[in-house]
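Fold sample X.
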Amino acid sequence: MNSLDTEKIIEQLKKMLKPKRLKHSINVANCAVKLSEIYGCDKDKAYLAGLVHDCAKYFTKDEIEAYVKKYDIVLDPMEVDNIALSHSVIGSYVIQDVFNIKDVDIINAVRYHTTGRENMTILEKVILMADMIEEGRDFPGVDYLRELSFGGQLNKALIDSFNNTIKFVIENDQLIHLRSISARNYLMQENR
């Protein structure tokens, strides 16, 4: 990907995201490149997926409804009226429509960056973790997740990340998305 494409994407993202979220997206893209060098996935795809992963984060209800209708997007019951979960699914269509990104690896990395899924690709894992540990993130345990991720233990970092998320969701009396449970359990079995 050349810098002209990147500049155009960032200009478009400026219209879609708040400045703090754009900075986060650029941080995720840069972190994804670092992780891709460790885990052997395509750096350009990692950068691009990181850059656009949150493109639908601030969609209005009308924008969500328009995309759902236009592309026949099926949101599961937990994603309906929940932009925290649905922005990744909707974003996987937005990147095709707005940025003309047709690469299935990038589309899936955007689609599953919030919940994960069983049998994730390396790129999907990289984007999920880059989103979690980019340099602007500051929460208890983030340094340990960075240590694992940059130390060649991506699956362990993902399992710990899912564990933390599931604990947080339970403590806040919220529903746990089944894809996250499946992703965690799959990784646990894979790591035995």
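Fold sample Y, listed below.
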Amino acid sequence: MRGQLSIEFLAVMAGFLIMVATVTLPTYLQANFDAEKLSKISEAKVAANELAAGLNHLYAVGPGSRLTVEYSLPAGILTIYLGGYDNLDVDGRLTADETVPINGRADIQILMDFNGDGLWDNMRDSIITVDTVLPSRWNEDGTDRGEDWVKENCLHVEENGLKVGPEYGTLSNRTFHRTTLIYCYDPSSRYPRRIVVLDEIR
């Protein structure tokens, strides 16, 4: 009789523990994913602030200046926009759940991939946005300032010098970057004022 009660008790306890694990394991895994995501967002925000501070400094000092910034990027970085030649309109962004408004200043934008599919998640929490003091091609009301104004006033950043994306392992690995920003002026160029970006991964 005693042995039978012990076996029944163990069977009931095992069933109870299985039920508890079924309920708590998904909650634990989700909490772990959320904590890791917040950590990555925080680290990417620090990197964006470093890059923005560097661009702001060069913009204030003027042509001929150069500055090196160091920062780390978490795994999951798809691309970084600095208002470069291909993205003269990096000011605000429309996402699936929220709009980052245009405000007349160029943004540092870091697009992240949290779900691991190799694509930007297109949600507000998967884009890090930090304003710079550099003017964008847009007025605060969203109207285009025009090509002549852009040529005369905008500082164009050659962001293709940044080593980010799948080919540099920034989707799967944490990387440490040493990025040199050089302010150049060439009046014969389509966009005379530009920042050359030289990036090293260490």
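Sample Y note: The two ends are 69 Å apart (CA to CA).
Also: Strands lie at 66-73, 77-81, 93-94, 99-100, 105-112, 127-135, 156-157, 175-185, 193-201.
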